[in-house]
Amino acid sequence: YSGPFDELPAGREAFAEKNYTHRVIGWNDVGDEEGTGIVHIAPGCGAEDFALSKEYDLPVIGPLDGDGVYKAGFGWLSGNPVSEVTQRILDDLSGKGLVYRLEDYTHRYPVCWRCGTELIFRLVDEWFINMGPLYDKPRSEVTPEEVERSLRYQIMEVVDDIRWIPGFGYERELDWLRNMHDWMISKKRYYGLALPIWVCDDEECGHFHVVGSEHELKELATEGWEQFEGHSPHRPYVDAVRIACPECGGTASRIADVGNPWLDAGIVPFSTTGYRSDREYWAKWYPADLITESFPGQFRNWFYSVLAMGTVLTRQAPFRNNFSYATLLGEDGRPMHKSWGNALEFNEAADRIGVDVMRWMFLNHKPEQNLLFGYHRADETRRRFHIPLWNVYSFFVTYANLAPEWGVGRGVWRVGTGDWGVGSMADGDNSPARALSPSPNSDALMDRWIDARLHELIALVADRLENYDSEAATLACEAFLDDLSNWYVRRSRRRFWDGDAAALDTLYRVLVTFARLLAPMQPFLAEAIYQNLVREGGLPVLPRTDSPDADAPESVHHTAWPQTDQSLVDARLLADMDLARAVVSLGHADRVAANIKVRQPLAGIKVVAAGKADSLARLADLIADELNVKEVGLAEGEAELVTYRILPVNKTLGPRFGKAFPAVRQALSAADPYEVAAAVAAGQPVSVVVNGEEVALAAEDVLVQAEPLPGFQVTNDPQRGIVVALDTSVTPALRQEGLAREVVRKLQQMRKDAGLELSDRINTTWLTGDEELAAAIGSQAAYIQQETLSLSLENGAPH
Fold first, then answer.
1. 349 and 409 in one domain?
2. Looking at the structure, do residues 170 and 145 belong to the same domain, yes or no?
3. Domain limits at 246?
4. How many domains does the chain have?
5. Do the Cβ atoms of 110 and 121 come closer than 8 Å?
6. Which of 150, 335, 381, 406 allows an S-S link to 132, with CB 3.0 to 4.6 Å?
């Protein structure tokens, strides 16, 4: 066999070294399903080929230098970039009569992930750290002596002592340690950490020495120290230093390579904390509580390098917790690239989205999942959390401004427990008359409930953040904000309208405490709320006759982390309110199904909630008010609220009974529907007589359809065992109340359209040809005037 380029000097020299000959070798990596089934072997141009050359002692020819240019010894190829010789090689082969056929062939090939340029493989000499053997047995069977002979197993023991978040990180790191080769620590670069390896200039000696410190280098230096002294250990200064070879006494020079960047990254726990100069100070910082990075690639890069350094130097974990996360992608699910048009520049995104919204997006996400990032998702986040929170803050400021007896004269100071509160200052007296302490005095049901929720939240958020679970912490904050906005504030509007001091105190305390709780996660939003409510910032604030108290911290970030007051976490009240809201949700569903607006008062609801009678009784008034019904009643069971229709499941019973199936249907129709419904609900079989013979039907073979009693709409929650039946009948009196509420709604919209302030009074004149509506306005005049701040409500019809 004669090779196509045997005439090149580099090839002749390589083959002459050991009198090599061309051979054909069987190789599992060559497939028989495509191509010719035979490939050439290029040990200097690929990892697999190089490994094969080691196995079969093949000559290794490395044709390219560091710039991708052919080296000397390759004839007409020498000096040419590898990317520019393809056609010349084809022409050369054609000229030699060696080309059988030319065709374009699509195959997989690595390219640069940034620009798409094809990559090439090049043979180079590198430096490695020996990781030790991998034993062919379970790790539990590896002996201590074997561990001492293998760095990879020593690192595994350190990995065991670390908390990995997400949990799969633990196994990923172990998997890397089991499968990694020796650690390559050198790079063919100029800038970077200069590897402290000096090699004897005498090739026959070839001894290398690793210098352990600048002091040792100075002791060993035979020349060049003057050029290096005073400089950091980087090129070119450190390259000037020569040392005496410890083996032969000749001159040794530093290798040209610099270190892998992960050497720098891995040694940070030691290089930045005085490990060599002040071991006591270093011990205060080691190990770190937390390291965090995006996990794709880091288990074999930074995480690994820190672990390796810590293991070699201390045999201890260099960090207690490892928090890793997936990749940020564009909203289209692809990596962000300018060439693809989906890249977002950070400053532009921060200005348009808002950095706190961005923070919430990152925190409110499962770290093990890729985050699809973009303006639409940011808008969704803002609508879900930030706008509702600011609306609650604005609501408070609006109604506090309408209650000057509450707002004027209030100052902020430190109360006895160290919490920050607001209270009323008597003239000439700086002692709090009604301080907002951690133990609120309000007996109002909604105030006690929101305080219980707040302190429940404080405990939960603290626990989740301590455990690096930001997603659960943010979800809890969102749930609390929903409770605050859509339940507490909405259910307490009348109290705020009336200037109720307890309600204002409570909402103030909740907002300030919530801002403190959010501060680590939402630093700017929390600061704005705190400054506005506590320090009087530049945004609209409560009117004050005094200046901010000098004792109040200047920033929310200077305040203490909120502490849970367990005495305020009323478990019974929380459970009661949870039940009440479930009942309300079903009641609203009833109204939707019956197409009856909430503004239309109704007679009442009946509720089935086994074992919850006392809870319902305690919150019956609240439920009735929310659902706009006159009465909340209890029912023993669903049977009081519905009738049942019993049917067979055709799919299963039809094939089973065949021609007798109509008799089965008739038997079920004749059975006691309430008994059958109870049996099916309990998962018990249903017995019926079919053609004179008793048969048992499985619960899943019987279909129970519940139909509301006439005049009722029924909705149930099977998981909670709650049923709510809404009386949908509307009496003339209820009809008049509903019409009055429609009038109020219309007038409120007219006030808003006219740009009136909430406190502005109006005179109202009405005119209608609808006798029913006129009667409703007449009978409900006081209510309409009160709700719309109408000084007068006059019929405009001519007399």
1. no
2. yes
3. 186-259
4. 8
5. no
6. 150
Other CB atoms within 10 Å distance of the CB of residue 380: 12
Q: Is residue 113 part of a domain?
A: no
Where is the domain boundary, 234, 259, 284?
Answer: 259
| 337 and 470 assigned to the same domain | no
Tell me the pLDDT tens digit for each residue of 581-618: 999 999 999 999 999 999 999 999 999 998 899 999 99
Q: What are phi and psi of 4, to 5 degrees?
A: -70, -20
Residue 227 lies in a domain: yes
Task: Decide if pLDDT at 419 tops 90.
Answer: no
Q: Are 542 and 504 in contact (CB under 8 A)?
A: no
The per-residue pLDDT for range 209-253, each reduced to its tens digit, is 999 999 999 999 999 999 999 999 999 999 999 999 999 999 999
Nearest residue to 639 via CA among 680, 611, 578:
680
CA gap 36, 196 in Å, rounded? 49
Q: What is the pLDDT of residue 733?
A: 93
Listed in sequence order, the residues at least 6 apart from 469 whose beta carbon sits closer than 8 Å to its beta carbon are 165
Rounded to whole angstroms, the Cα distance separating 406 from 373 reads: 44
Q: Residue 536 has what pLDDT?
A: 66
The strand pair at 702-708 and 693-697 is best described as unpaired
Q: Are residues 791 and 658 in the same domain?
A: no
Arithmetic mean of pLDDT over the chain? 89
Distance CA 417, CA 438 (A): 8
| Statement to judge: residues 166 and 287 lie in one domain | yes
Query: Which of these, 672, 679, 674, lies nearest to 702 by C-alpha position?
Result: 679
3-state helix, strand, coil split of the chain in percent (to 5) is 45, 15, 40
The CATH number that applies at residue 27 is 3.90.740.10
Nearest to 681 by CA among 664, 706, 657: 706
